[in-house]
Amino acid sequence: MNQMQKTLVALVGLVVVAAGVGLFAYKGVYEKDERAASKKADQERLFATGAEPGRGQDAGAARIEFTKLTVSAGSDTTVLERAPGEPWRITSPVKARVDPLVIDGVVSQLQTARFKTTLEGEATDAELKTYGLDAPSFSVVAEATVGGQPRTVKLEGGIENPFDGTVYIRRDDSRVIHMAEGGVRWSLAKTTFDLREKDLFSIDEPKLQRLAFKSKSNDWELVRGDDKLWRLTRPEATLADTVTVQAVLGSIRGERALAFPADATDAALKALGFDAPLATATFALSSGEVKITLATPPLDAGSAFYALREDADGRVLAQVNATARTAFDRNAMELRDKSLMPFARQLVTKIVISTPGSPEVVAERESADASIESWRVTSPKSGPAKGYRIASTLWTLSAIKAGSVVFDQSDAKVLETYSLDAKSARTIRLFGPGNVELAALVLGKELVGKSGSSYAMGARKAIVEIDSSRFNELPWSADDLIDAPSPDAGP
Question: For 316-369, what is each residue's pLDDT tens digit?
């Protein structure tokens, strides 16, 4: 072996030794310190996972699935449970739905909050009393699976440190005392009322198909069709005003429970006046039915109001504001469409326009699903219709609002007086699938001394005053509607 070979062997040996030293340093020192730092960081969390960190992983990064929480605030203890993929439910002291925002706050604090500092040594009995931990003001026992393994952590909160607003906490009955931000107390110290769902009137509106209401003064029913439009079916069959219906639903949605006084036993309900309720509302959803009944105690009428919700989950009884009654108790007149000729524009498949002394104009399309470009004039001449004129005509007609009522009911003589009879009036009739008439407008003479206003009769057959200033824009002749080629256009 010559000198160069000896040198190369020596270099290889040095490299091997250096690699071994480096591996030892990484495995024996750096990786060990890394695990120690990860464990320390995990122990600083309120809910310490206790998981062994993997390479390059924080122990606290292990997947946590909370399954049960026992929350105590003073003398009030609440048990909440959830199955995988299911929402939280209160199981004790009552069975009830959970306020999602409140439970999210509790779980978030458990998962992310850390102790601000840890006091040295272990506290004596006297020190536990000083910190308010001999009789904790709140506690949480959290059960979870961590990386598939069961894990339980108990947290107890004491008094607030007046110096910086932190709160004294101990974990798992240890005498080691930690201090956490004051917000931890606000998130974890929850009573049963705090944790319960107080949105007693919550309804999954996209699934709502029917709403029926009955009180001493009002009795009506709303139904939503496949076209997503609301219609009154009681006390009269007519299109409802969508904006008003949405306002009613919004008012109902805004009502919240003030208290949950007792279980909804028959005796409790009778004492609160539910044997003679103020009102009843029934919500029919694609997923089931929800019934809400409002009442006031017979011996204390008007000073306190209660609501009973009944659905697939059972009964919930709550005290509510007096405004809950007015949120529901609307007159049917408020709910119906205020348009003179209420109709759903998207359902119109045929328009018939009649003007005294002129031939009837008819425009049609094959179906309600057909595009606006598919409209054709079919009488008294034939040709493609101007799609934009059809669209603007329907919009104008749907936007007409009735003014003051002149006659609720009218006879032939009255109709003739106001030029609303067949020989004098201009009419527009709208038809839908199956040639079913959807709406009709009868336009009479102008009001004397009131230019731009005319007498008219719509769906309810009452004679009313309307602003007719835009009616001259409507297509009263076939030429107004037919999309004729330009005279300058080539062959």
Answer: 999 999 898 888 888 888 888 777 787 888 999 999 999 998 999 999 999 999
CB-based burial label for 268 (10 Å; 0-12, 13-18, 19+): middle
pLDDT in tens, 22-65: 545 445 544 455 555 666 777 889 998 876 655 444 444 568 89
- Specify whether the CB–CB gap between 349 and 359 falls below 8 A: no
Say how far apart CA 271 and CA 300 lie, in whole Å. 10
pLDDT digits (tens, 9 = 90+) for 444-465: 888 877 777 888 888 767 788 8
Which residues are within 8 A (CB) of 295 and not within 5 positions of it... i.e. 6 or more apart?
A: 269, 272, 273, 274, 276, 277, 278, 305, 306, 307, 308
- 200-250: per-residue pLDDT in tens? 888 888 899 999 999 999 999 999 988 788 889 998 888 888 888 998 999
- The token pair that represents 133 in the structure block: 């931990």
Question: Exposed, middle or buried, 4 (CB in 10 Å: 0-12/13-18/19+)?
Answer: exposed
Measuring CA to CA, which residue among 80, 101, 77 is closest to residue 90? Answer: 80
Q: What is the pTM of this model?
A: 0.67
In the numeric block, the tokens 């059972």 are attached to: 314
| 178 residue type, one letter | H
Average pLDDT of the residues of the chain: 85
Contact 109, 186 (CB under 8 A): no
The Cα 129–Cα 137 span in angstroms is 12
Q: Are 395 and 384 in contact (CB under 8 A)?
A: no
What's the pLDDT at 9?
54
* Beta bridge mates, 427: 354, 442
Is-contact 283 211, C-beta < 8 A?
yes
Map out the domains of the chain with their CATH numbers: 63-195 (2.60.40), 205-335 (no CATH), 345-481 (no CATH)
**pLDDT tens column, 54-108:** 544 444 456 889 999 999 998 899 999 998 888 999 999 999 999 999 999 999 9
Which residue blocks in 265-347 are alpha helix, DSSP H? 266-271, 323-328, 332-335
> Would you report the helix, strand and coil content of the chain in percent, each value rounded to 5?
30, 35, 35
Q: What angle do CA 210, 213, 218 make, to 5 degrees?
A: 140
Taking the C-alpha atoms of residue 26 and residue 251, their distance in angstroms, rounded to an integer, is: 65
Residues in a beta bridge with 171:
155
Contacts of 9 (CB under 8 A, 6+ apart): 1
Residue 446: partners with Cβ closer than 8 Å, 6 or more residues away: 452, 453, 454, 468
Q: How far apart are CA 71 and CA 39, in angstroms?
A: 27
